[in-house]
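Input record (Table S2, row 278):
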Amino acid sequence: MSSVKQLLSAAAELGTEAAADGPLLLAHVLGRDRSWLYAWPEYRLDANKQKQYKSLLQRRLSGEPLAYLTGHKEFWSLDLQVTPATLIPRPETELLVETALALHSQETAKVLDLGTGSGAIALALASERPQWQITATDISGAALEVATENARRHKLGNIQFLHSHWFDSLDTHRRYDLILSNPPYVAENDPHLLENGLPHEPVTALTAGTDGLDDLRRIIGAASDHLAPGGWLLVEHGLDQALPLQQLFEDAGFDNIKTVRDLEHRDRVTLGCYSRTP
Ligand code: GLN
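Output record (glutamine complex):
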């Protein structure tokens, strides 16, 4: 039986990835937080826990994302459950949430999150604006189960979950003040898909046709049928997609089209307002 200290120094010797994630996996197996490990270095794991930890560390070193191994990922200070049915929420998607909150300061709003996955965007908005009525959709029933459970655990009752492929199952009588989406936007043959654990994530949440824009084209093209007058559409996208997206927004009749950059000055989110009346 090994002690916490022995297991952590063994992980440190395996390289930077094991040194960084070994403690997180060990804490996960023990149902503790990381600081506990440093407070109890002499604690000895039983054989079963030790086996569990070693197997998780092995899987991590073979490329499985940490979030799928622990089943958790933090987004907007909310601890979210994630499974391989959902994309792992990325910190960069917080820019989409920030932009929406800055854009619409009113206490009430009808808001739609298309392709919610683990529910990250919808839950972040719901936690900040308890009066907003949020609808969150996904094409994947398994993802919706995860998102629904995340909302329940965080006691966020102002989100309605709906099984839908983009707008397909939505009623056009209900109009939204804000529509947000972090859809798949990576080109099908992008070599980036082979790195950083992406092969473990649902491909339907990552890729969209040969230029990565198939789903964005569909969303931008149909959004005006679901926006209230003066409503906004905000989408996350790839770093080199701002120009084609601005054109798509323009072709669809949007005005006030803008692209927002992240802290590293990379284009990340494009938005537009639909002011025309039907
Ligand atoms: N930002 C993600 C990545 O490149 C892709 C997420 C998405 O397609 N929505 O890893």
